[in-house]
DNA sequence: TATAATCCATCGATACGATTCATGGATAAG
DNA sequence: CTTATCCATGAATCGTATCGATGGATTATA
């Protein structure tokens, strides 16, 4: 049964298929592809034979995509990108490349990685435009619809067309104003204090906060801010405590004191509670693009340079 | 430059290219493809035009692949698999499917996941043959050369053509014979004891052992065994201590006592030291195969069922 | 309801391209 | 030097993708 001659499919056919899908019309696709309408119709029939599915069925004088066609569209786009990667024209030469890259990242990972990434990458490239957009709660759609090329997040989206790779591990520490209080060394002391944490309205809470929640441990969170940069003013001159990735302590929170989380608090918590693992994620589409692969490599190198320790 | 008509490439051309590469000969490829030799030669020329690279150059009366051709071969194989995924014949029906799956996994992950996976998956399938092979130090070649379909490991290989996904997190605990000693509650007590650990000759040491090593902490390891199943005889009736993933305590080491790692030991260690994160990894080739995707989904479900806690 | 407009499928003609057979130049082996 | 084998090329053939034109079907408009 499977014996449809799938090997007969070529890039032109894929492009035609995707165009028909996007236009929702054979005639419109023909116009966009600068072909005769009948040619598109015939080509579509050929593709129907090759994949063994009607792909589009008539409904009135329009056509609607079958379920199978819906499934095929992203796959077809993927294959077209793969075909492009076959050409020899892709000899990627950093020294002559003028690249534009859009990265979605929230405050912590942005400030930690991207400045160093930029200086490193830009030094080797003819030109680099780096667009950083807020990721919010990162979704696979951002990558699928090419709203960004890469996404940096501790909770990257999953999906069969999404690839993710670990960048670095960090550990949560308590940060506080050393002039106003001392480090909480036990769970009791920790829970007795007043806390400030980061809860972005459109993103997931920190895995640390979620883990405590899951344990039924409720600390006294008196202030929540939308991002890490908002913590400092609340810590300064107060006895508030924040639990943040330790690397942040080397950035915006340099002026404060840091201490490890109370050991007895962690003993009860699930593994990885005190660890924040940062990933980068991208779409399969960009997998074989040598320029993007190079950029990802640079970012990875920056993360590696920092080492896994705080 | 980029203006080679890469869309003109079709599956037949890719297959021809790969065949010529594998045979190292135009004539031999023609025989295997059941075509005339000149047809292959012409087709090869067509492909040369389309991708803008000689692909094979004459050397004596043989031909040798160019660098670019070498790079293209895996990509071509990938695209052929992608094309196969276009056909409608792939409506995957578990109830009628007779599958054969080869998984590379070492002892811990094998015993923990695969029995439950097998019963779960086999119950839904017409037939399932599960081959489990030892992974040793897992390499991307095992996946590339299709020696296995999936690999389960805490240290999955990396590569642009390898996809990995987290299965579950576990935490290291101390395991010992409760009749002979008590739990080490401090780093000092921990280091005063005698230890047994797992070091497989052809695999990486455990991340826990590596982390301690990295800190310059040398505990007194008096016995090493090649896999987890070898631990029990050495623990039984002795004062030896082993640090193993806590889930193992529920399997082979049920008879022993378990205790968390000393907190002060972990405080100095890098984040994630006490966490073992288990991944599955597979080759891009199997990404769009619905049967394999289904099997991976089942395995994931089993891992999820166990929850992230021990 | 009749008419016009638009859509997609089909038909015959045409041009392009893929394959075949036959041949030639090059290399290596006998 | 001869022979066998390899790959490339040329001419001829066959298949097929495209075109323009046409027809059947559906929807919008008067």
TrEMBL record, chains A, B:
<keyword id="KW-0238">DNA-binding</keyword>
<keyword id="KW-0805">Transcription regulation</keyword>
<dbReference type="InterPro" id="IPR050389">
    <property type="entry name" value="LysR-type_TF"/>
</dbReference>
<dbReference type="GO" id="GO:0003677">
    <property type="term" value="F:DNA binding"/>
</dbReference>
<dbReference type="GO" id="GO:0003700">
    <property type="term" value="F:DNA-binding transcription factor activity"/>
</dbReference>
<dbReference type="InterPro" id="IPR000847">
    <property type="entry name" value="LysR_HTH_N"/>
</dbReference>
<dbReference type="InterPro" id="IPR037402">
    <property type="entry name" value="YidZ_PBP2"/>
</dbReference>
<comment type="similarity">
    <text>Belongs to the LysR transcriptional regulatory family.</text>
</comment>
<feature type="domain" description="HTH lysR-type">
    <location>
        <begin position="9"/>
        <end position="66"/>
    </location>
</feature>
<dbReference type="InterPro" id="IPR005119">
    <property type="entry name" value="LysR_subst-bd"/>
</dbReference>
<keyword id="KW-0804">Transcription</keyword>
<dbReference type="InterPro" id="IPR036390">
    <property type="entry name" value="WH_DNA-bd_sf"/>
</dbReference>
<protein>
    <submittedName>
        <fullName>DNA-binding transcriptional LysR family regulator</fullName>
    </submittedName>
</protein>
<dbReference type="Pfam" id="PF00126">
    <property type="entry name" value="HTH_1"/>
</dbReference>
<dbReference type="Pfam" id="PF03466">
    <property type="entry name" value="LysR_substrate"/>
</dbReference>
<dbReference type="InterPro" id="IPR036388">
    <property type="entry name" value="WH-like_DNA-bd_sf"/>
</dbReference>
